[in-house]
Amino acid sequence: MTQGTVAPRQASAPTVAKQGRSIAISDDSVATSVALLNRDGKLWIEHGGERYLLRRTANNRLILTK
Q1: pTM of the model
Q2: InterPro entries, from UniProt (predicted)?
Q3: Which residue, of 19, 42, 47, 60, has the greatest Cβ tally within 10 A?
């Protein structure tokens, strides 16, 4: 798999597209953090009416905060 790609594991999967990105989603989808995070290493996630921030740290770890 190349850097910044998503590897769906099922042939038929719905696609989510927003702001020029599309990611195939299925029960066994795998997405690299490079494909999900923006150039600043951040991704805002909305879940249950709340917003969460997934970000890459200076030590190349991921942190999810509310």
Answers
A1: 0.60
A2: Hemin_uptake_protein_HemP (IPR019600)
A3: 42
